[in-house]
């Protein structure tokens, strides 16, 4: 018990029995959207998920999987697999992304961490390079965070600072780049007055320079590398303000697609190439458009483009951008410290747990589910199985992925009688959805549905209970849309494919022969989200959730 009175023992649920095996199925990238030809879940044959949705209305509902529901700053922030599984497993909402950075900057904690102490070793004789999106859009980065960081590092010994800017025009108005550059230039001028050699060294538009994602076009990253690291670009200017104004004056120019430029001194030399002994920080907090650059900065064996010169640097991200790849290995702001997760509680209350997915999502159903924690809570009560993902191909080539193998392992675990909870992630909707291949994503959704059937059949056989849900949307909407919801067309009148996650809600379905007949979804929770699932699962195991968990989604009617 300890002096605080804390106990791992969960109280028994007053109405729900213990001892029924529970299958928890997470469909990755499976949201709910209007049915049309770009909704791959709607187009695909998904009889099992359809039957859950069209079955008992009190056993199927939608929950929020983006924005504030998963700890992100605003409801313009789409969900992702990491924050989604954190919420599903933790049962509470923890600050993520920008919010974490804000807290670390406000408290000064950012300067106490391993990441900062690592890059600080370069301050004495090297240059600190800050690379990222210059914008107050708040989707990938925020200008005020960069301003605070500049102040903080200069107060802590950074003598030479170079900022490599990427103009936005996507999350903010086109043309706003000029004002952001003016603001930054004023700040750097003040730093120079204090004896810090601080200036902008290079730039370019985010969609043409550096910020590609999902390995769509490595040339975008190479253009950035050439300007930022090598100090080489087709355009050379004396100042960033002159650069942005001049390049914006070209026909059809916009902030998103400004060509790369470098700032040069009076002799025509670039003012800020990255050299041996320098430190580099990528300042974006959002991961998806920093991962490719992080690979180029961090990996010794890298062959996606010719880096020409690979300086020996100290590199840190604002955050870790990929928890699976542990990339980058150094970062200024640590992930949220999540304690007392549902997984740990249940294991400590005797729930024998089996978790399985394939490589690309295995970490989500284990590490992220368990509060960013590796390994078992109790190896005698848990088994985690990773099915190797296909490698060397894009996922649209084999859209079935390993759904069948995952489902069979879950089935076998249920039938073995050795486990009380069997938890899986079926990655198809997300991983194939990211390729933007609509036909393949339809196949992927069908494969995931077939996998759900195998698992639910096994639940039926053992008299168990199922909870089927998702971590965020993706496959349910594959096209970019205007404000009224109509598909956007490109200049050749082709639809613009949406490869990203969405802001859509996701389903939660419950059932199975072991489910108490009085159980139904409540309708008194204002905006239920993924974090409400953990307490729900605890109830299905016959326990009450801890008092500080988000409320359970279910109630038990007295029959």
What's this, in brief?
With about 550 residues, this protein is of the alpha/beta class. The protein has helices spanning about 40-45, 45-55, 80-90, 100-105, 115-120, 145-155, 175-195, 220-230, 240-250, 290-300, 340-350, 360-370, 405-415, 430-435, 440-460, 530-540, and strands spanning about 20-25, 60-65, 130-135, 160-165, 195-205, 235, 260-265, 280, 315, 355-360, 380-385, 420-425, 465-470, 505-510, 520, 555.
Describe this structure in words.
This protein is an alpha/beta fold and 559 residues long. It has two domains: 288 residues, Alkaline Phosphatase, subunit A; 236 residues, 2,3-Bisphosphoglycerate-independent phosphoglycerate mutase, substrate-binding domain, CATH 3.40.1450. Helix content is 30%, strand content 15%. The strands form three sheets. It has a seven-stranded mixed sheet, with helices on both faces. A seven-stranded mixed sheet has the order 6-7-5-4-3-8-9, sandwiched between helices. Strands 15-16 form a two-stranded antiparallel sheet. Helix 3 packs parallel to helix 12, helix 7 runs antiparallel to helix 9 and helix 13 packs parallel to helix 15.
